[in-house]
Specification:
Order of helices and strands: EEEHEEHEHHHEHEHEE
CATH superfamily: P-loop containing nucleotide triphosphate hydrolases
Distance between the termini: 18 Å
Shape: globular
Number of helices: 7
CATH topology: Rossmann fold
Number of domains: 1
Number of strands: 10
Strand content: 25-35%
Structural class: alpha/beta
Bound molecules: adenosine-5'-triphosphate, magnesium ion
Length: about 220
Amino acid sequence: MSLIIKLSKINKVYKTGEISFLALKNINLEVKKGEFIAIIGASGSGKSTLMNIIGLLDHPTSGTYILDGQDSSDFGEDYLAKIRNEKIGFVFQSFNLLARTSAWDNVALPLIYAGISRSQRLQRAREVLERVGLGDKLESHPNQLSGGQQQKVAIARALVNNPELILADEPTGNLDSKSGGEIMNLFEKLSSEGKTIIMITHEATIARHAKRVIRLKDGGIQWRQ
Ligand SMILES: Nc1ncnc2c1ncn2[C@@H]1O[C@H](COP(=O)(O)OP(=O)(O)OP(=O)(O)O)[C@@H](O)[C@H]1O
Ligand SMILES: [Mg+2]
């Protein structure tokens, strides 16, 4: 199977004033298309930093990142935005939903940049909201939804563009075990449809749904399965 991600000797240094902090150390990682991977590790071990680099939201300080055969250091800002929008679905640690906007419009939003008509955007958004079990909450605003439901809206928004790569930072962090299990069933189904999924979690029961687990420690890969 072909590689979707190849990270070689990735380092990330955060500079705050005079102080430099090495948040990622010599990360080498290959991900094949269709893999379902869990990233685990203590708070501060570099999980979100790694995810942001994989998601093209941040640049590594050194090392190379090949995404789908292309060296990401060659991408200009416009191309980065295009790839992020078309290829990658993000579920953030905080949901990043628009507060004064219905679940339906929150989910339909990424499709605006794809140049799809409003009626088609709403149709597609309805389908994914139904898929995550929120077909009866289309008109609800985030503050009218539980934490778990907001998380599901964020997941629906990540899926609405039908991305090849799904990146999820603690996608079940705010869910009870039943809702968490529903999301994992959905991820397993997406994985069986050929999507590549990389998910950060601190829960062993959630990590178990992935086919492969990578553990970070102090910015390095401590072990991998
Ligand atoms: N913008 C930043 N500037 C400076 N240091 C940062 C920045 N972002 C993260 N760090 C530091 O880098 C390290 C890794 O942070 P990161 O957010 O990747 O951890 P994490 O594994 O996702 O933790 P958590 O499980 O708490 O989300 C931490 O020590 C953090 O303080
Ligand atoms: Mg994090």
